[in-house]
């Protein structure tokens, strides 16, 4: 597992959990780091912060679509997720084409 983050706090937290990584902010450093990660066959899961992935979706989607490994997983950073509160229901609705009602509590 390896992390590419847009902030130091997320990297620090992941290092405490034993995950190494790097902080990048721009396209070219991200591209260079991804090339290094893709060449390292010991990395099976690439964690990338949602914000970084949303700034450079073309680069990330290319890896997801054209590579078997590493598996790319977008994670929220310390500011929380960029997804809507109902993103799982929206995903299911889109995937199966059926409106799923949320149970009232």
Helix-strand pattern: EHEHEHHEH
Largest sheet: 4 strands, parallel
Global Rg? 16 Å
The tally of domains stands at 1
Stretches with pLDDT under 50, minimum 5 residues? none
Write down the overall mean pLDDT: 84
| Fraction of residues in β-strands | 15-25%
Judged by helices, strands and strand pairing, the structural class is alpha/beta
Overall geometry? globular
Query: How many extended strands?
Result: 4
Organism: Catenibacillus scindens
Family: Belongs to the V-ATPase F subunit family.
GO molecular function: proton-transporting ATPase activity, rotational mechanism
Protein name: V/A-type H+-transporting ATPase subunit F
Describe this structure in words.
The protein has 105 residues and is of the alpha/beta class. It has a single domain (2-96), classed as ATPase, V1 complex, subunit F (Rossmann fold, 3-Layer(aba) Sandwich), CATH 3.40.50.10580. 46% of the residues lie in helices and 17% in strands. It is built from 5 helices and 4 strands; from the N terminus they run βαβαβααβα. It has a 4-stranded parallel sheet, with helices on both faces. β1 (2-5), α1 and β2 (20-23) form a beta-alpha-beta unit. The longest helix is centred in the N-terminal third of the chain and has 13 residues, at 27-39. The model has no long low-confidence stretch (mean pLDDT 84).
């Amino acid at each position: 597992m390896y992390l590419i983050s847009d902030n130091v706090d997320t990297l620090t937290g992941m290092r405490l959990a034993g995950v190494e990584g790097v902080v990048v902010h721009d396209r070219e450093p991200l591209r260079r780091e991804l090339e290094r990660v893709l060449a390292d066959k010991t990395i099976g899961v690439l964690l990338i912060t949602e914000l970084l992935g949303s700034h450079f979706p073309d680069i990330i989607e290319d890896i997801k679509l054209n590579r078997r490994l590493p598996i790319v997983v977008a994670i929220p950073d310390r500011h929380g997720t960029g997804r809507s509160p109902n993103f799982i229901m929206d995903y299911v609705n889109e995937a199966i084409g059926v409106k799923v009602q949320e149970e009232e509590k």
